[in-house]
Amino acid sequence: MYSSFQCRVSGEEGPSAAASGAGVTGSGSTTAGGGGGGSASGTSATVGSAGAVGTGDGLPFRRGIRLLETGCVENVLQVGFHLSGTVTEPATPSEPEITHKVAISFDRCKITSVTCGCGNRDIFYCAHVVALSLYRIRKPEQVKLRLPISETLFQMNRDQLQKLVQYLITAHHTEVLPTAQKLADEILSSNSEINQVHGAPDPTAGASIDDDNCWHLDEDQVREQVKQFLSQGGYYGSGKQLNSMFAKVREMLRMRDSNGARMLTLITEQFMADPRLSLWRQQGTGMTDKCRQLWDELGALWVCVVLNPHCKSEEKSSWLKQLKKWGDMDVCPLEDGNYGSELPNITNALPQSNLAQDSLSRPRRTVFSRAVEACDLHWQDSHLQRIISSDFYMSPSYQREGESLLFNPQGLPLWLDHVPTACARVDALRSHGYTREALRLAVAIINTLRLQQQRQMDIYKHQKKELLQRGATSTTNLEGWVGHPLDPIGCLFITLTETCRMDDDSTMDTGDGDPRPPVYHHVPVWGSPDGGESYLTLALEVALMGMGQQRIMPEGLYAQDKVCRNEEQIVAKLQELDLDDLLVQTLRKQAIQLLEAGPFSGLGEVIHRESVPMHTFAKYLFSALLPHDADLAYKVALRAMRLPVLESSAGSGDVGHPHHGISIVPSRYPRWFTLGHLESQQCELASTMLTAAKGDMLRLRTVLEAIQKNIHSSSLIFKLAQDAFKIATPAESPPDITLLNVALELGLQVGAVCVCVRVRARARACVCVSMPACTNNQKLKHSTLSFYVSFSYAV
User: What is the Cα–Cα distance from 396 to 398, expressed in whole angstroms?
Assistant: First the structure.
């Protein structure tokens, strides 16, 4: 069981106090037993920060507030660090009035155990626990306070103690008498275990200062709920609930609650016990996309856990041992989503490339491999510590040998770690509540990427002539940042934009399930020598760098699908940005650099044959740049129209012929399982350019040539012809002749086309351009200009 307190109300404190480990003293709060009141008040520090996602009236928090405000909480008594009371549920037409006994124990601002007579079986606190907790926070003067029971007993003499025990047994003889007699027998026996221990336990006295304290977590209930959600298979609701539990783990980590790792361990144990894993492995089939995404999030969360900057070495050793144990299990899902061969390989009879042989010899990597590797990372590096601890860390005036690698020419610090690993550090800092430190490291990583991009452009300038003559390059990035298991670009983007987000009422969830898009504003980068640089411009810049990275298509259906999905997710985030002058300036600068970066950029002049296409990314760039720099927008989009893997397989024949281009590459290893999706994105990019170029004959001709050169699917060319016709003939305005000509040429490229252009001219003639004979060659008497384009498609 965990807190359902998420919705903030006036009078309750935010999460900062709980994160700092200090209780918040509310007005009129009192203490008992040397800190009872402080601990109860400390509960308020987590109100609004540790509960279920959402703000609906049916949540336990809202129901608890209603119970409190309607006077349903009574008989509240605090004995030391133990709070008790009764909460009455009002009668309803279908249910009678019910009174529940509630008991809460707390220690150093954390609820350590709860008991409620309602029998609630959920990982969140029930409404009755919420009501009693808020009663203690809001009405401290109405709570009866007593010392811990051991202190009270110490003040009694023998007769008083005997009277207390006898009255207690008399009042509850049916429940207490057997236990009382058992304890009496043990106390009277000199050899009993109870007599070997000095003193006696006191549940109201609180824990020792040396004891660990953590929020109450009902482990059995967590296991049961995860097991139940997993048993529901691929249903939407179960995935949503599990994602909510993952969000709860991240929230615990941010609050530096030790239960975060505990809860994640419980979730992982149930995931590993899922009987479907054995079934999928035996059948050699892949799991559903929804299930794969849950496993990916599970692996990413473990990376965050083991990269906790302040975790103890024994904790990390324990996690490492457990992660290796899970990873060694046969049913543990692999990182690439496969259990061996994902689909029968129809190219087994063909010679396999070295790439295929390399893939077979690679070590087995599971969803936990990244977390296992992260266990070897540490935070003791002095340069890293200076980066995350100061906004004004610069290179010294006198640099020792080797220090030039730690700073850029402007003196700003660099972090030369493997990019996904460096971003995992950022995600870990952010996840554990170190927001400022995460921002500092993110800025250092971006400065490193900038310097790397500049050096790559310098290298390309020296090789440009040779590469352009060859028309091909072997330079590529085998590990792309988009679609990577650690999501480095998404991590940096979220970290940077979070600090620029305006959290006002207009951007909050309206409760109808359709939250309004976030609103961002520029926040200057602390310590930056460039006064015009903000965290928002950095977020845009790093997203463009990552999306424009030239990278090879990964192996396997899931890995390729993940690349496409992650790309679309980043584009969706970029579209939330309201492009002002600063952002447009960043957009133009980065687009130009990507065009001039050669084989190191997916938009360079010469790229690797198996590079991931840039169609989705270019479509965003085109739409964003078009109102500000149309020439650059078209240059980017036209460059991105290529699909090299098809170009090299299509041969040197007439690519405009409908039967020359094919949409599969049977001899390629590994196969492009997402090729159909990529070609459709290529078609959408072309359609977007056609729409924007309407009325501009020169641009339309350029776009048409790019389509004829790069699109090899007859069905997609036919679709573009239809799109061009629809765009050219709007319902309430004159048709566009230039775009109709494009539709005609695209139609001619596909197959038979009959185009009847009917005009009211002086000669009243019907001009027919056709492959078969036109059936509409009579004179017309229409008074308005009209175009009828009829495509007869045959393959």
Answer: 5
575 neighbors 581 (Cβ within 8 angstroms): no
Helix axes 36-43, 127-138, angle to 10 degrees: 120
pLDDT on residue 125? 85
- Secondary structure of residue 291 in the 3-state scheme: helix
Token look-up 């089939």 returns 285
Digit-coded pLDDT (tens) for 534-583: 999 999 999 999 999 999 999 888 899 999 999 999 999 999 999 999 99
Residue 782 has pLDDT above 60, yes or no: no
Residue 11 to residue 26: CA distance in whole angstroms: 9
pLDDT digits (tens, 9 = 90+) for 134-165: 999 999 999 999 999 999 999 999 999 999 99
| CA atoms of 540 and 577, how far apart (whole Å) | 9
d(CA 73, CA 84): 10
User: What mean pLDDT comes out for the span 2-17?
Assistant: 36
pLDDT, tens digit (0-9, with 9 covering 90-100), for 447-501: 999 999 999 999 998 888 888 888 778 778 888 999 999 999 999 999 999 999 9
Amino acid in position 330? D
Whether 551 contacts 597, CB under 8 Å: no
Tracing tokens 């609004």 back to the chain, one arrives at: 48
Q: How many helices (H) and strands (E) does the chain have?
A: 29, 8
Q: Report the largest interatomic distance among the alpha carbons of the chain, rounded to a whole angstrom.
A: 126
Give Cβ neighbours of residue 266 (< 8 Å, ≥ 6 apart): 219, 222, 223, 226
**Axis-axis angle for helices 697-710, 675-692 (nearest 10):** 170
Token digits for 624? Answer: 């964003």
Closest to 370 in 3D by CA, of 336, 335, 419: 335
- Of the candidates 653, 753, 745, which has an alpha carbon nearest to the alpha carbon of residue 708? 745
AA identity, residue 438: A
| Pairing verdict, β 753-758 and 73-79 | unpaired
- Angle at which helix 313-327 crosses helix 289-306, to 10 degrees, equals 150
CA distances, 618 to each of 103, 398, 688 (Å): 60, 44, 11
pLDDT at 7 over 80: no
Distance of alpha carbon 739 from its chain centroid, rounded?
Answer: 42
Q: Residue 554 carries which DSSP code?
A: P
Beta-bridged to residue 86, according to DSSP, are: 74, 101
Note the pLDDT of residue 471.
Answer: 79
Pairing of strands 144-146, 73-79: parallel
Band (pLDDT 50/70/90 cuts) for residue 402 is: low
More confident residue, 176 or 340: 176
CB distance 110 to 47 below 8 Å? no
Considering only CA atoms, which of 62, 51, 115, 42 is closest in space to residue 84? Answer: 115
Q: Between the CA of residue 715 and those of 154, 307, 611, what are the distances in Å?
A: 90, 50, 24
State the alpha helices, DSSP H only, in 509-580.
Answer: 535-548, 557-574
Contact 572, 358 (CB under 8 A): no
Q: For residue 362, give both structure tokens.
A: 């690679």
Using DSSP bridges, classify how beta strands 766-770 and 753-758 pair: parallel, antiparallel or unpaired.
Answer: antiparallel
Sign of the Cα torsion 38, 78, 161, 173 reads: negative
* Local structure of 42: helix, strand or coil: helix
Residue-wise pLDDT tens digits, 265-303: 999 999 999 998 888 888 877 788 888 899 999 999 999
In angstroms, what CA-CA distances link 534 with 167, 278, 499, 541?
71, 50, 10, 11
Assign 234 to helix, strand or coil.
coil
The encoded tokens of residue 4 equal 């359902």
Label residues 90-117 b or e (16+ Cβ within 10 Å = b). Answer: eeeeeeeeeebebbbbbbbbbbbbbebe
What rounded mean pLDDT belongs to the chain?
80
pLDDT digits (tens, 9 = 90+) for 693-702: 998 999 999 9
The pair of three-digit structure tokens given for residue 302, joined into one six-digit string = 């473990």
CA 1 to chain centre: 25
